[in-house]
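Thread title: Can someone regenerate the structure for this chain?

I was given the following input by a collaborator and told the matching structure tokens would be attached. They weren't. Posting the sequence so someone can regenerate them.
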Amino acid sequence: MEIERKYLIDLESVPFDYKSYPAKVIEQGYLSTDPVVRVRKSNDKYILTYKGKGEIEREEYNLPLTKEAYEHLVKKSDGRIIKKIRYNIPYKEKYLIELDVFLGDLEPLVVAEVEFESRQEADTFVPPDWFGEDVSTDNRYKNSYLSQK
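Best answer:
Regenerated them for you:
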């Protein structure tokens, strides 16, 4: 089960050098958006993901792929291939902010995601001051939607 909240970010409001944190270069394509079936390259790891319906809380299953399988499947993607750099930023000793800086025609979109262990924890989370609008329930900011628009 994936439980996460998502926020829009203005990089000018980030009060530290986010580029100093560990980063992954991510490329992903969607074989289906209903249900969501995604293939992803994250640095040198390749993953097939199934995501169930939902907004803040939904099922998620990940399976490893070989590079060859990824390269074969990504060509079958429906819509654009999403490219982004993900910075992993620790927050309050318990959380990890995944700061996604989108590349290409999705620039200048920047989104922060935070995952939680329970729905109650997600519902009571107080984001840092530099976070913008909470778009957790706005489907326009799901990557599967962005791949189609």
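The helical segments are 67-74, 119-124, 143-146.
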